[in-house]
Structure formats: structure tokens, C-alpha cells
Amino acid sequence: MTEPQALTLLALALIPSWLTATMFQSRQAMLGFPASMFWSILGAYAYTLSATPWGDWQFFLFFASLFGMTVFTIYSAYGLREVRAEGTDEDEYIDETEDAEGGSELPPERERRTRAPRTRITRSVVRTKKKAHQDEWGEFS
Asked: What is the pLDDT of residue 38?
């Protein structure tokens, strides 16, 4: 192996390693696709440098990066994806439910603090809906 081939192999090995480590450190699933692509490129380049199948380390690098790390980064990116479970305005929160007697289970000062922001949000949503309804007919309404 010549020096340019060795430096190319080193660069192709550092890029997917860095992308994979950064993907897990920052928990960004979007880095999984480029990491898997660079692992595939590294495997293909290692295969072109291999002289005999199952006989040198370049072939083992090809096998490990193309069939091991490529699949691993795709599955890990799928596992790191962000699942958004947002509620609507009609959902009840634990601290806003009322107990069997009709009162809240929170102390009065805390109940006031939790209901005040909720009321403001509901009012702003209603105002926004009214504005959207007014603008719905255009300038001739």
C-alpha cells in the first residue's frame, strides 16, 4: 500500500468514526445517514485495496465497516430519533385534575399558579382562531 492510499484510508476511517461519535454524543439522529454512507465508502475503498479474500486486514475492514458499522449506524439513528408526543389544549394535566369532592388536591396558592398560565394560553389560542376566522373571507368580509 502506498502512502497516498494509506492517507486516503486514514481520512475515510476518521470521518465516519467522528460522525458516529458525534451522533451519540449530541443525540442527533440526522448524523446517522452520513455516518452510514461514510462507513460504506470506507468499506468499498478497503475492498479495492484488498489483495485476497479473508486473507488481509483490508478485507476484514471491508466486511466490518460495510456489514457491521453501516447497519449499526442506521439502527442507532432510528433509535435516536425524536418522538414528539405533544398534547392538545383539551388534555388534562395531573396537577389540574379535581378530586372526588370537586376541589383540587393542590394547595390554593399552587393551584392559582398552575391555572393562570393555562388560562392565558387558552385565551391566546381563542384570539388566534378568531383572527383566522375573520381573515378567512378575505378583504371583502
From this structure: 92
Q: 91: which residues sit within 8 A by CB, 6+ positions away?
A: none
CA–CA separation, 114 and 78 (whole Å):
36
**What is the pTM (predicted TM-score) of this model?**
0.56
Residue pair 16/39 in contact by the 8 Å Cβ criterion: yes
Query: 103 to each of 28, 73, 79, 114, how far by Cα in Å?
Result: 44, 52, 42, 14
CB 68 within 8 A of CB 117: no
Amino acid at 66: L
DSSP state of 99: -
